[in-house]
């Protein structure tokens, strides 16, 4: 998997991407923007509610916009066109006073390449306009999310830790495909994907197990171009010796798979935080997967380093969108 240093090198050698941060009034966002433009990694636009909110001593390399300065009429008309009968002109006018909607419309109009927010906006605030405007890629019915879990020279992808509360079998299969595609984009060679459960190859039973088995059946029908297997308990997934004992006929070849697909949001969210707090892994993300353009959601407790890394990975996603 590409390191952060390698991604920064790729960004410097490629067409410069433009990221909009709708939370321009947040100090950590302003500090991140300063770091990004000083390193010439991306172009940055900070969005504010009012012109009077814009700092007067900002780096001139950082573009500053405010809602009260923007002519939102083209965005309003375009949004009504996109939404059809679902949104009228009055509703669209109100929505285009929200910075997340303006940022998303700027992506649609190709004025920016990507968006990062979430320090003050909720995940719903971020994703609602994304799903309405940018929409999911052809072939998928949902968006998903993933964390990159890093420790020393190890890097894995955990999914879906932030979005889908209780996906069905078809959705779980899509989540696995999206995360594996993300792994490929991050230069993971021949990624292998494991679907997690409290059962290993029939050792347990119940509706929750049936769903994971169903996801594997979905993939068997789709025949994606990567190795996958399940259902596995985490010890069998993570430890090759245990896996070979519990599931000697597994399709997995690597000592440790690259992508771990959790069966639902509760276990996924708990799982990545256990790895982070008990295991000492750095959790980078969440990255929103499956959208036509990258829009990523920060944790409201994100540190300056978290925001900086997310912005760099987001620019890389935009480069490959």
From TrEMBL:
Catalysis performed (reactions):
acetyl-CoA + phosphate = acetyl phosphate + CoA
User: Which InterPro entries does its entry note?
Assistant: P_Ac_Bu_trans, P_AcTrfase, P_AcTrfase_dom1, P_AcTrfase_dom2, Phos_Acetyltrans/Butyryltrans, PTA_PTB
Q: Which residues form the Phosphate acetyl/butaryl transferase domain?
A: 7-315
Q: Is the keyword Transferase in the record? A: yes
Question: What metabolic or biological pathway is this protein involved in?
Answer: Metabolic intermediate biosynthesis; acetyl-CoA biosynthesis; acetyl-CoA from acetate: step 2/2
Gene3D superfamilies according to UniProt = 3.40.50.10950, Isocitrate/Isopropylmalate dehydrogenase-like
Membrane-crossing ranges are none
By its UniProt entry, which Pfam families does this protein fall under? PTA_PTB
Specify the superkingdom: Bacteria
Q: Which GO terms describe its molecular function?
A: phosphate acetyltransferase activity
Q: Which UniProt keywords apply?
A: Acyltransferase, Transferase
What EC number(s) does this enzyme carry? Answer: 2.3.1.8
Give the record's family classification: Belongs to the phosphate acetyltransferase and butyryltransferase family.
The protein depicted here goes by the name Phosphate acetyltransferase
Taxonomic source organism: Williamsoniiplasma luminosum
């Amino acid at each position: 998997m590409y390191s952060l240093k390698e991604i920064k090198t790729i960004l410097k050698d490629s067409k410069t991407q433009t990221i909009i941060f709708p939370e321009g009034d947040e100090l950590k966002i302003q500090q991140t923007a300063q770091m990004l433009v000083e390193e010439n990694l991306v172009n940055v636009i900070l969005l504010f509610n009012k012109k009077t909110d814009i700092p007067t001593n900002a780096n001139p390399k950082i573009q500053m916009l405010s809602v009260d300065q923007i002519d939102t009429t083209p965005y309003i008309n375009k949004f009504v066109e996109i939404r059809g009968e679902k949104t009228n002109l009055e509703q669209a006018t109100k929505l285009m006073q929200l910075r997340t909607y303006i940022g998303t419309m700027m992506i649609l109009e190709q004025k920016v390449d990507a968006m990062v927010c979430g320090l003050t906006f909720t995940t719903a605030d971020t994703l609602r306009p994304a799903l309405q405007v940018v929409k999911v890629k052809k072939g998928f019915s949902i968006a998903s999310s993933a964390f990159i879990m890093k420790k020393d020279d190890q890097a894995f992808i955990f999914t879906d830790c932030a979005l889908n509360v209780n996906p069905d079998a078809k959705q779980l299969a899509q989540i696995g495909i999206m995360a594996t595609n993300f792994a490929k984009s991050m230069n993971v060679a021949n990624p292998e994907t494991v679907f997690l459960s409290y059962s290993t190859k029939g050792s347990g039973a119940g509706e929750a197990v049936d769903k994971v088995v169903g996801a594997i059946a979905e993939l068997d029908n789709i025949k994606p171009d990567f190795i996958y297997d399940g259902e596995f308990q985490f010890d069998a997934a993570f430890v090759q010796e245990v896996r070979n004992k519990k599931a000697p006929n597994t399709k997995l070849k690597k000592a440790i798979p690259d992508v771990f697909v959790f069966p639902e949001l509760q276990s996924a969210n708990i799982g990545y935080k256990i790895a982070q707090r008990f295991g000492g892994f750095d959790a980078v993300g969440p990255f929103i997967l499956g959208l036509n353009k990258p829009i990523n959601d920060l944790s409201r407790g994100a540190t300056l380093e978290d925001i900086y890394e997310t912005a760099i990975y987001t620019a890389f996603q935009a480069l490959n969108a």
